[in-house]
TrEMBL record:
Biological process, per Gene Ontology: ubiquitin-dependent protein catabolic process
Species whose genome carries this gene: Cyprinus carpio
Lineage: Eukaryota, Metazoa, Chordata, Craniata, Vertebrata
Pfam families in the record: Cullin, Cullin_AB
Biochemical pathway: Protein modification; protein ubiquitination
Family statement drawn from the similarity comment of this UniProt entry: Belongs to the cullin family.
Keyword Phosphoprotein attached: no
Protein name: Cullin 4A
Amino acid sequence: ESHVCVSKHNRPELTDSYTEDTWIKLRDAVSAIQNSTSIKYNLEELYQAVENLCSYKVSPVLYKQLRQVCEDHIQAQIHQFREYPSSSLDSLSFLKRMNRCWQDHCSQTIMIRSIFLFLDRTYILQNSLLPSIWDTGLELFRTHIVSDGAVQSRTVEGILEQIERERNGETVDRSLLRSLLGMLSDLQVYKDSFEQRFLTETNRLYAAEGQRLMQERDYLHHVSRRLEEENDRVISYLDQSTQKPLIATVEKQLLGEHMNAILQKGLWMLLDENRVCELTLLYELLSKVKGGLMTLLQAWRDYIKSFGGEIVSSPEKDKELVQELLDFKDKMDHVTQRCFQRNDNFINAMKEAFENFINKRPNKPAELIAKYVDSKLRAGNKEATEEELERILDKIMIIFRFIHGKDVFEAFYKKDLAKRLLVGKSASVDAEKSMLSKLKHECGAAFTSKLEGMFKDMELSKDIMIQFKQVCVRRYILLNTQSLCTSALGNYLPFFSTLHLSGSMVKLQEVCKLFYLGKHSGRKLQWQPTLGHAVLKTEFKEGKKELQVSLFQTLVLLMFNESDEYSVEEIRTATGIEDGELKRTLQSLACGKARVLNKMPRGKDVEDADRFHFNSDFTHKLFRIKINQIQMKETVSVASVQFILL
């Protein structure tokens, strides 16, 4: 914008002739601008002429005349649009003509305003009811061009057609759309003339698209891509005010209307296949829809209950139950952290679901968790380092918190701990105490007091054995005993009072008993043969071997020093071993991998009519062979005695 300051002393004298001539000059200049022809007069001269007229108080007349000239010109422009061919093929050229007319109008208005700037800044500015020259230009264009029903309809339809083409993958002139939509916005008809129809068409398009594509595997990626495209349209050419209702429309039609179907069809599959990216996208998309996260939360809870319920309720999978629970918990934790943004509601729902399904089968999970802990804390477990074992125990404690039958866990844990301590099979005292510390923190001191007492008993037992060996050395028998207080173990461990030990064993037991009671008067010492074991030196045709066997197996094998063959009844009478335990013992010696006895007739099961004889042809690549005892589904035990017969 430029203006020229002319001294009042150079102002010409006001006459009707001067006013008329000056206006004609100004009108010609405006006409030249509107027709894109050259202006005959200097712009500074024209500006000065306007200032002179305004100084002579003829501003009202000048404003009225200027408005009329502009209106006449704009009214003449409408014909080119009304007469334009109505073929759909010409819609783009129609839009281009409309845009050219608008761009010309804007540039012309700017030029005219620069000439009449003095009028705009004095008279018009001082009269609040009068629109500025620029606003007058907008008003006239709106009234005579855009507000024409046919012209407006065709313009909006042409814009919508171009947007639809772009949505279908075609390339369109975005700068053209940006200019035309900016025109509608400047003319304050954007919402009424365009936005409402645009949102209606958007709703129709995506409603149909949602129905058509919802079953496709990559539907979530399609929705995400559509949302990105619509946001890009807002940035590129739509008015910013359209963004919120536009995105809401897309989300409603592509997500809200199909939310339950998406979750029913896809969530469980995504979780089963651990598709982290799609789960993250699902969470992000549903978080934008009203009620979306609550619906996802319920579906997530249902999935955990269903999947976890299958793990817990399958007895044939009991051996893998705890490991599967740990793996499942790790997987769900990963989903909440990576996909669900560590949302507390989802974390709490997961905990509730785990507690729900894990207690559908009373007591068994508690028992199996105790057994799993035993397998990890038992000597010979080479699966994990100390650090890895500590992490495993931490994970087990998370599962432990969910079970209601903690007293069942305690019972089995006590028994397994006693066995590990009595037979010296604990992998690490530090790991044992770490587990006790975790249980104490979780359940209180009362829960672990008896368990902690076991460790004190074992320390006392070691001291007693050191003293015993110092006074009771035997060249032909080495004896090692461990003792635990029965009050720490409960009343669920069996004792075998009918067992017939060899004379040397009985004699050594009495020696040990007298020594122990001499140290601890008032106590009663009970022996637990189920935990006893021995190493037997045996001669086969292949050569000498050492057999590492249980006390029951020892009693059976020692009989074959006296005779080569025995019946089941003869062995039962000689050893005093209970019938079920005896059959399992004979089965381990004659039907397992290391068959040091032969059974007649052959077969996997032991019957009362079977007979057994020593297998002198037994061969094995190892010198010391451990023959495992066949266990019942549940075994119980309390104190041990270990013999090494040399």
